[in-house]
Amino acid sequence: MRWRAEQDVCRLISDQFGTGPIRARDVPGFSSAGEAFAKGFFAWAKREMPLFKCLNFNFVIQDVEAVREQMQYQYDARDFEPTSPLYLGIEMQEENVFDIGEKVAHLRAAHPRLVSTTMALINRAMGRTIWVRTPDEFLGMFSSYYWDGDSRASDEDVMEILKDRFGDDEAELENYLPSVVRDELCPSDMDVGRYNRKTHRFSLTPALSAASLRQLQERGPRSVRRICLELEALTLLLKTSRPRCLFDLQARPECAYAAATLIACDSPRISELLDDHYEHLSQSGEGSTFYGFIPFASTPESIRKQYADWSLAFSILGQLDRVIAALAA
């Protein structure tokens, strides 16, 4: 952690202790205001956060200059205008990859909408919290490399593009056709949205209701009961918040890693896409291990709201972690 002896930092820390849930008794000894705040904040976070089996991230408290250093190579670095002397950084230093293909097959057999419901609820949960890489992202990566960025393209749509790149070798071309690649990277029911070619509109996939998930727990096969139980709990938890990110990120670098990655199958193609992704971010200089930075609030009302949002976010993340653990089991 990096600190600067400025009055606004000390004032913010005083307001945090005076208004927020941080407890002075969690700080038995300290050598600076910054150290006291760090001890108090992480003691609160430890009480609030569940233990994670699958999600991988941590928090870092940084001052404005440290955030500027992280943002300096980002394309939108000039847009960063600090609103607080201290920021909470969300860091992801590595990526856990989970092959959920086997369990997805069980879900697909139990109910035709259960796979799409699972992906829709995961997408909603990460929209309120932090990033989880889902199969549709791999399809997006592949389409950007080989299909001019059109992940909905047909074989006919991309044939000329592929011939320009690989020639007329049919065996080679077949390896890059949507009809071959799509089921490997992201089967249609694992996509988080639907695109209507007639209206040119994209809509998020609807999910089964909590009541429907409860029914599947009662009459579904044993292999999917736990997942339906966890999905029902996630559904009810998501209803307690509006569809917005509970971590109010002000600055977002290009994060190389996700808190977790879900893949439809373990294949060399997916490994290659991830390796290319990491290599690209490394060479561009924009890659970061930080997902984003949240300004610490300073007024009594905003401080209380911020910690309430974070507490709810931790609950959602805990339930999301249980869903992923059930899928990966």
From TrEMBL:
**Please, which domain of life does this record's source organism belong to?**
Bacteria
Give the taxonomic lineage as stored in the record: Bacteria, Pseudomonadati, Pseudomonadota, Betaproteobacteria, Burkholderiales
What is the protein name for this chain?
A: PRTRC system protein F
The record's listing under InterPro entries reads:
PRTRC_protein-F
Name its species. Answer: Caballeronia sordidicola
